[in-house]
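User: Structure please.
Assistant: Input sequence and predicted structure:
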Amino acid sequence: MKYFFSLFTFLVCSIMVFGQNENYSNFTEKKIESGSTFKKYKNGKLDSIIITMAAVNYGNTLIVSKSNNEIRITNAADKNSVIKIELKNKKQVRTLFYKEEPVVIVENIDFDIENLPKSTVISTLISDNMVFSNTYFSNDKMFGDDFPDKTFKLFHGLTVRPDLDNLDAIFENIGDFFSEEDALLKIFYGSYAEKFAPQVLAFLKTDASGKIKDGIFMDFKNKKINEKNNYNIYKNGKIIKSEAVNLNDFQKVFINYREKSYDN
């Protein structure tokens, strides 16, 4: 594949981001499908990550940096958006800022169906045998006609282990992700990315008291994929349907539920 971003372009982008005094001999390059990942280590710790992307009709650069309090991910072709990953009570909080305003916030939580966060949207997912839950806030109307498609896909498609509770480990995990041969495909190429998406266990909306108002929830007690677990569908605070299915069949139930929800 022909690459639009040469090492020279990478250096120019790096100078713009990190300043004139960078020592580029410390960067190592890992070629991946549709691009390259450049890493720099300082005193044995990962210090900088730059990913150059190339495709038939566009070239692009992602810059990942870390401070004491946050990890920032920027897209050189999108000056309005910034992704930040921070920690709150040792839980990851991922925020997409647009023109310095928070537009999408995903916060890891400990899921307790008897003590849920109030007036929010909650999802529970499973990936690589790891179950994790998030609250989700979105005000994507703020984008207007200037929807940052690639940054939005990056925000949702970047895989970070949800159990990591310090920024150094998260930063290393991001570096590992972008060293995978198909990392960019997992983010930007829809049909390919779908193969690696987490499976859903719950999608719930809570009321002002933290009670389930609407949604769907699988009680994932039997951990084997082919074993059946009970699920409930809620509407206006009441269970309107219950059934037992295996995990794969529940994904079809969930998709059908969401399609009907959109129709309503």
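The two ends are 45 Å apart (CA to CA).
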